[in-house]
Amino acid sequence: MRRLPAAVLVGAAAELAGVGLTATAVWLVMRAAEQPLMSALTVAVVAVRTLALARGGLRYAERLTGHDAVLRAMAELRGKVYDALLRRPLRGGDALTRLVSDVDAVQDAVLRCALPAGVAAVVGTTVLIATGAPAPLLAGTLLAGVVLPALAFGLANRRLRALAPLRAELTEHVVALREGEVELTAFGALDHALDRAGDLVDDLAARERDHAATALAGLAVAVQFGTGVLLLVNGEPAHVVLGAVAALEVFVPLTTAARRWAEHRGSVTRVRETLAAPPAEPPPPLLLPTARRVGVVGPSGAGKSTLLHAIAAANPGRAKGLLDDAHVFRRPVRDNVRLADPDAGQPRLDEVARVADLDVPWDAGPELSGGERQRLLLARALLADPEVLLLDEPVEGLATRHGDRVLRAVLAAARGQVVLVTHRLAPLRDFDEIIVVEEGRVTQRGTHDELSRTPGHYRDRWTAECP
């Protein structure tokens, strides 16, 4: 951000060169009409030429310094946001929004809002001081530079608040159409749902037409030329009148800048919160169970996946595997599996594919079924060959017998310790230890034989699964 003041000054210099060129050229024309000696016009002629050249050069320098300053600042900001997210991690989509969309919005806010406002402030102050701040010019500056942008910001803010529920409702309808198409078709409700989504789109499109912004931009132009008329009526010389009109030109884009600021303010606030957030407290040391095969069971939402994440965080480099947030990238299957070991050769890839029963071509794209995706992630976890293999519902999406067969092969191939989260208890009968998690706490632990005889969640689940 240290380069931004220089960008503001260069931009202000370019605008002032244009104002000076207009005022000097008008004075020169008016003075030349009086047919004075050429020597009386020499300085003005040189000034016009100099200002014309300076305006073009400074305009180029303004674009160069402005974009250079903003791009460098955003590169630095993105790094700081990334470091902040490492100190206090956020879950998937929110972290991606902070790192990409919000930082891009900050870039647009600086380039399209902060820089124009800074340039307008410097130009307006300079022109008012140079002209002695005549009342019409002072009033025009306040109207175009303060009142109209504030009004544009307020109207844009109110419009965005009104649009938010419509956008949320449209998102819900799109998700419902995407995920519930079969059910809607079966019950004959698909056409009604499509019509409702279409009505929402039309309503949203109509409300997004910002007629107020267009009107305010036109009003800013009216203020600009109205100020010139008032100056002319007050008897100000022509070069002052047209110079003032040229100076007020820099305030016309501020209504658009204010509207953009209303759109980007939330992103700027979130980035500030991310940078200001204190580092997350390091998790307390988490001791791994000593058994070679450990099962983790419990009701949905009890904290089983959280326990696996805590084990992975407390044992970096040692504990890896298939966690609930594992991602398949839009790359061929081979590249997705090789993430675990980029140097793995084809024989090793074929071996883990055989164990995970991954029967798709290596060059296939990421458009996989749920079961194929799960087996791809299993193959990736096996390729990592960690000391502690963490598996969170590794055969979810597979038929029961197929899943049990794949899981047996994976357990047989794992050379280290295995911690398995599962809802099915049958695969745990031969495990060395089983941990029951309920409401974020370990409520039971022991072998299958011990827990199946002890009242509690495990015995209830086992009785329901194998009556």
Q: Would you kindly provide a written description of the structure presented here, covering whatever features stand out?
A:
The protein has 467 residues and is of the alpha/beta class. The protein folds into 2 domains: 4-276, ABC transporter transmembrane region fold (Up-down Bundle), CATH 1.20.1560; 293-465, 3-Layer(aba) Sandwich (Rossmann fold). It has 16 helices and 6 strands. The chain has a 6-stranded mixed β-sheet with strand order 2-3-4-1-5-6. The radius of gyration is 34 Å and the shape is elongated.
Brief overview:
With 467 residues, this protein is α/β, with parallel strands linked by helices. The protein contains 16 helices and 6 strands.
SSE blueprint and pairings:
Elements: H1 4-32, H2 42-87, H3 92-131, H4 135-179, H5 181-186, H6 190-208, H7 211-233, H8 238-248, H9 254-276, E1 293-297, H10 304-314, E2 319-322, H11 333-338, H12 346-356, H13 370-384, E3 388-392, H14 400-413, E4 417-421, E5 433-438, E6 441-446, H15 448-452, H16 457-465
Parallel strand pairs: 1-4, 1-5, 2-3, 3-4
Antiparallel strand pairs: 5-6
Helix pairs in contact: 1-2, 1-3, 1-8, 2-3, 2-9, 3-4, 3-8, 3-9, 4-6, 4-7, 4-9, 7-8, 12-13
